[in-house]
Amino acid sequence: MPNELYFEDLAPGMTFPSLYSYRVTADEIKEFAERYDPQPFHLDEAAGESSFFKGLAASGWLTAAIVMRLRVQSIRIAGGMIGAGVEEMRWLQPVRPNDVLRTQAEILNVRHSASRPTYGVVRSRTTVYNQRDEVVMRSIVNFLAPLRKPL
């Protein structure tokens, strides 16, 4: 497990591959859909087959939650990764039962926070791959990272 990172440890161009991968199950897809995104193509294989997706597909929001898990396991920010906004989130391929997801995060920009002098703002892009190396999701998000030595 990597050491906790502070704002000063992060620079544009740094990359963070997943330390782990995540296998998505059909039960998980259906349970998440029942609770948060109850659409037929997320709930039932037969309904999925006759839909746009041509099979059971995970909610994009389930995929985003899995990606969050992979990100915080791979980029260990001191005190936790505090979200500061999503600029872009694109679902490019459906996530299916038994897909194995992994991420590659890249730091795009870092700047000191104007409103929180003990934090910096980190802009990052995360690309999500399945076991066939297909890109299933891409996002650009901002998060706060504490300064090791506040200004």
Question: Could you write a compact summary of the structure shown?
Answer:
The protein has 4 helices and 6 strands; from the N terminus they run ββααααββββ. The protein has helices at residues 26-36, 40-43, 45-49, 60-74; strands at 15-17, 22-23, 82-91, 100-112, 119-129, 135-146.
How would you describe this structure to a colleague?
- The chain starts with 14 loop residues before the first strand and ends in a 5-residue tail after the last strand.
- The protein is elongated.
- It has 151 residues and is of the alpha+beta class.
- It has one domain (7-146): Hotdog Thioesterase (Thiol Ester Dehydrase, Chain A, Roll).
- It has helices spanning 26-36, 40-43, 45-49, 60-74, and strands at residues 15-17, 22-23, 82-91, 100-112, 119-129, 135-146.
- The model has no long low-confidence stretch (mean pLDDT 95).
- Strands 1, 2, 3, 4, 5 and 6 form a six-stranded antiparallel beta sheet that branches.
Distance between the termini: 29 Å
CATH C-level category: Alpha Beta
Record field, number of beta strands: 6
Return Rg in Å.
17 Å
Low-pLDDT windows of residues? none
List the domain count as a whole number: 1
Structural class based on helices, strands and sheet pairing: alpha+beta
Shape, per Cα inertia axes: elongated
CATH topology: Thiol Ester Dehydrase, Chain A
Indicate the mean pLDDT: 95
Task: Assign a percent range to the helix content.
Answer: 10-25%
Largest sheet, in brief, is: 6 strands, antiparallel
**CATH architecture classification:** Roll
In CATH, the homologous superfamily goes by the name Hotdog Thioesterase
